[in-house]
Design brief:
By secondary structure, the chain is of the alpha/beta class. It is built from 13 helices and 14 strands. It folds into 2 domains: about 150 residues, Aspartate Aminotransferase, domain 1 (Alpha-Beta Complex), CATH 3.90.1150.10; about 220 residues, Type I PLP-dependent aspartate aminotransferase-like (Major domain) (Aspartate Aminotransferase, domain 2), CATH 3.40.640.10. Helices cover about 40% and strands about 15% of the residues. The chain has a 7-stranded mixed β-sheet with strand order 2-8-7-6-5-3-4, sandwiched between helices. A hairpin with a 2-residue loop joins β10 and β11. The longest helix has 23 residues. The chain starts with 14 loop residues before the first helix and ends with a helix. The model has no long low-confidence stretch (mean pLDDT about 95). Bound molecules: pyridoxal-5'-phosphate. The site of pyridoxal-5'-phosphate (PLP) has 13 residues, from α4.
């Protein structure tokens, strides 16, 4: 059978190979420490669980409005106003089954054949593939380690040409943990407005910020940039609710309406009980979020202290999210176990074989000199994992 042409442009994530190897080793009874995960290891807030269960008992089990319940959209409007200084009406909100689905609706509604979309590199795995699925072309903009994995306004300006329609901006960033300061955001917003781009601001890690850093949404920097921004957020990371599947978008009404059309013919809406649980979390679960962030902060410090001892690696201290993204090029040409390593993929396969430690190869994020290590695990695992890595790389 011949598959659709668009599938031939889709890459299988390089993390797939590592995950498959790790699963096989675990099934064979080997003690593999998994640092490749992209989700909080905390329980969902009690208020969300109770509300979700009660929704099922009350038979809140039917279709909801395509764009999500009014009650939930109102809670999102309130959240955006009080926490992010953003002013939206409920008809400027679209609730989707996960932020990934929100992003997909945005990309499908905004970009098509002939359009180019700027994607800072390193990038989260799904951006380039969603852009390709829409028939548009991702164009990568380097966010080098030497610049703290951030893009420069001048580079953004130079990259613009008449085909470039948009930019995807994700901070705190997966995989690097980088977060933009206010003056950096303002400079980027100036270029976005000048070049008449649309920006998809993926703010899913908003709450996971350390050292008392404050989050600023780029859309809050003025009406001009707000009119060009699609804000994406969701429950997965801040509220440890990955499996519930709830994301949302806030944007000017014509964009939200266009995204709603995409959603009405694909996923319809997130599960009704998930919407009830998410409403409860948005109204009541901030203590849970605070506890989780404090613990992630301690783990980040432990991870950085351990990595500092591995002198062949260099690592930028992440401001947010729950990943470190060390540069492993100092290992290239050396052996891990029996394997001579020449790229991030080799290092991650070598560490899995020799140290029984699973990390994500940088290739998955467009950066073969790096590996991504998640600190979404307990302190003991961080200690054991770093010791094993240290022994394996010598
Ligand atoms: C940067 C980024 N955006 C979006 C998502 C999607 O999150 P969700 O679980 O809400 O679909 C993820 C999940 O890993 C992510 O890392």
């Amino acid at each position: 059978m011949r598959l659709a042409e668009r599938i031939s442009h889709l890459e299988l994530s390089p993390t797939f190979k590592i995950n498959a190897m790790a699963r096989k080793m675990k099934a064979a009874g080997l003690d593999v420490l998994d640092f490749s995960v992209g989700e909080p290891d905390f329980e969902s807030p009690r208020s969300a669980k109770e509300a979700g269960k009660s929704a099922i008992d009350r038979n809140v089990t039917r279709y909801t409005a395509n764009e999500g319940t009014l009650e939930l959209r109102q809670a999102i409007v309130d959240k955006l106003r009080t926490e992010n200084a953003l002013t939206y009406e409920t008809d400027q909100i679209l609730v989707s089954p996960g932020a990934k689905a929100s992003l997909y609706c945005a990309v499908m509604a905004l970009f098509g054949p002939g359009d180019e979309v700027l994607v800072p590199r390193p990038y989260w795995v799904s951006y380039p593939e969603q852009i390709r699925l829409a028939g548009a072309t991702p164009v990568f903009l380097n966010a080098p380690q030497a610049r703290g994995f951030k893009i420069a306004p001048a580079d953004l300006d130079v990259a613009c040409n008449p085909k470039v329609k948009g930019l995807i901006l994700n901070y705190p960033n997966n995989p690097t943990g980088a977060c933009y300061a206010l003056h950096e955001l303002k400079a980027l917003a100036d270029v976005i407005v000048k070049r008449k781009l649309v920006v998809i601001a993926d703010e899913i890690y908003e709450k996971l910020l350390y050292d008392n850093r404050e989050f600023t949404s780029i859309a809050s920097l003025g009406p001009e940039i707000a009119s060009r921004t699609v804000v994406i957020n969701g429950m997965s990371k801040a509220f440890a609710m990955t499996g519930w599947r709830l994301g949302y978008a806030a944007a000017p009404k014509p964009i939200i309406e266009a995204m709603g059309k995409v959603q009405s013919h694909t996923t319809s809406h997130p599960a009704s009980m998930t919407q009830v649980a998410s409403h409860a979390a948005l109204r009541n679960a901030y203590d849970d979020v605070e506890r989780m962030v404090a613990e992630f902060g301690r783990r980040r410090d432990a991870m950085m202290a351990g990595l500092a001892k591995l002198t062949r690696l260099t690592c930028v201290r992440p401001d947010g999210a729950f990943y470190v993204f060390p540069n492993v090029s100092g290992l290239f040409g050396r052996k891990i176990g029996y394997r001579t390593v020449m790229c991030g993929q080799d290092v991650s396969e070598g560490l899995l074989e020799a140290a029984r430690v699973a990390v994500a190869p940088g290739e998955a994020f467009g950066s073969p000199q790096h590996i991504r290590i998640s600190f979404s695990c307990d302190m003991q695992q961080i200690e054991d994992g770093l010791r094993r890595i240290g022994e394996a790389i010598g």
